[in-house]
Amino acid sequence: MKVQRQIWGHIPLLHITPDQNEQSELPTVVFFHGHMSAKEHNLHYAYQLAEKGLRVILPDAHLHGERSEGLDDVQISFRFWEIVLTSIEELAFLHEELHKQKLVSGEVGVGGTSMGGITTMGAMTVYPWIQAAAVMMGAGNYVELAQAQMTQYESRGFQLPISEEEREKMLKTLAMFDSVKHQSKFKSRPIYFWHGEQDVTVPFESTYRLFKELKIQYEAVPEKIVFRREREAGHAVSRAGMLEATEWFAKHLAK
């Protein structure tokens, strides 16, 4: 396995490939990290994927890792959805760059943990070229989640730095990427979910409810949608979940 630190456009990333294959056209996964994390924290996913013959791109999200602007946790939390939407937008550039550099064979898989899983769900609603996805303790109910976050901040005494008009505009924008509202756009593409039932950061029930709704359109291909729940797990993916996710990509992307 070879790990290279690169910058594509303005995006710092880790580019991981199987040994001797860095210039070959390979099935590829773009994997997004979580809130307050960074690209290096998902190298264990990349290792498993590279061992299976896949190329992996681990980008730093806006305001994270090498893109940090010295903001504190609260300031970054207030900009959560800006970060998610920026990652969705930047995914189009990464996809284009992979093809421009002739690095990818076939299409691309996308996945992520926590905020990265949330990003993946939004990306599935706008990019039909995503061939397979893995959503690790993520969520697709953007509007519901954003409203709950704002209510939580206000109940803790924080004054949100946006006007009522800006709030409505933000919710309208998030609705464009909301998986609950755009379930038809999944088109029965392979998607794997992992979620701990004790997760209090990204609620289990709302993601599981969305999975059950999505399952209806997968009736002809039920094997293409899987939800792995772990009863005692909180907001931390188990090793078993990580291994299943990487196997999922290998199964649906590798030639």
Automatic annotation (TrEMBL):
Keywords: Hydrolase
Pfam families membership: Peptidase_S9 (PF00326)
Key word Repeat present: no
InterPro entries linked: AB_hydrolase_fold, FrsA_esterase, Peptidase_S9_cat
Keyword Hydrolase: yes
Peptidase S9 prolyl oligopeptidase catalytic domain boundaries: 90-253
Signal sequence range: none
GO BP annotations, alphabetical order: proteolysis
GO function terms (MF aspect): carboxylic ester hydrolase activity; serine-type peptidase activity
Gene3D superfamilies for the chain: alpha/beta hydrolase
Matches recorded under SUPFAM superfamilies: alpha/beta-Hydrolases
Protein name in UniProt: Esterase
